[in-house]
Predict the structure.
Amino acid sequence: MEIDDLTPAELRVWRAFATGETVDFRGAEDEDAARGGDWRPERTIRAAVLQSLLLNGPEEQGKIAALKVAGARITGELDVRYGTVDRYVRLAQCYFDEVPQLYGCQFRQLNLSGSALPGLAAATVRVDGVLRMTGCRFRGPVGLGGAQISRAIFVDRAEFSAPDASEAVLRLHYAEIGDELMAAGVRAHGEVRLNGAHVSGSVILNDAQLSHPGRAALDAQTLVVEGNVHMRRVDAVGWIGLSGARIAGRLDLSEARLSNPGDAALRASGCTIGELWLRKSPPMEDRLNLRRSQIDVLFLEPDVVPREVHLSSLTYTTLTPHEPAERRLPMLERDREGYVPYAYEQLTAAYHRGGDDHAARLVQLAKQRRHRSTLAWYGRLWGHVQDATVGYGFRPLRAFGWLLSLLAVGSIAYALHHPPPLKASEAPPFNPVFYTLDLLLPVISFGQESAFAPKGGYQWLSYVLIITGWILATTVVTGVTRTVSRQ
């Protein structure tokens, strides 16, 4: 491009490029770039001029060339696809008429902070330093799929939207980010796509507002993060997908509001997570899916748990904060798959590791009661007997109470009416207490039962004592066996 073809505004930018000076067209630092469509020609630059500078701009000996422009309106299509730009590029608080075409381009550093753009086509772009899009406003999709960013990406306080609600407004799928993804306070009116991306640092999404009702608000399936994922105070309408993700540090959803009525709000099946924090938040709408996930520390407050969950094969080492079993058990009862034995075993193990054996026993008791509902009628009947007598072996003292009560009833009844001896000459002296014990205890014999034969109603009472004695003895043995096996 010839210098004679440049407008005064373009000439300022052209001359400043060689020395790396900044050209600032702004009337005020807080000027709104979204109104750039009304800016006058004295602050308008053709995209073709910037393209010439980026690919073959002038240089001045002893100076470091760079493109630094603020507050300009850029007309036409900025097309540097497959190009190599070895200069620092800063187009801050600028207004772009058309979508910049940066597919396959290589930059040293790129800064678009505060600018307003109709979108960005930059799939497979490579940035050897930092990519900054802080405070940008995009009116169309931003494509950064497969991008390679050596250091960090800054999209904090940026706003993303697109005319087509079915489109992903921010695509970072399969991107490689060498440091952090800073997206605090971001606002996305559509899908944010991070599936298959790899982040060597942390992902910061605190205070983000993600809206894509009934669809994916954040699709981060198979995402790999070597640091933490901070999503504190996130407000998401639509589902957050983390299936198959691997997060080495903490996934922090403290104070988050997750809503996706009629479907899962958080899909985190098959994940590997160091710590998952779900705390200080209202209950999710509508479901929580943690199937087949492996979590080292699960910080889960009962009040956050939604009305439906998927917990099949969920494995966790530590469950915090410590809550009574009565507060944790409703979560297991809300599983859409019904009775999931493994979920009860995980909760029991967590209480054992925390030293709360009483809570662990309550969980096991609840497991047996839930299992009872899946049995045939005769299994349910036997289960009710075991529950009423010894609490499935987890409340063995109940059996002794029943035995003492029956012993008292039998002793009083037979003390008032002695049963006649079978052989009066051979019968020992009658003792109502030991006679009742002979009836109740199927193994021990005091010689009383075989020597006396009650009649009428007292004979039926002896049958009742024998049957209940067998039942109590069986349930006591079952309880002792469970206790020994747990130890």
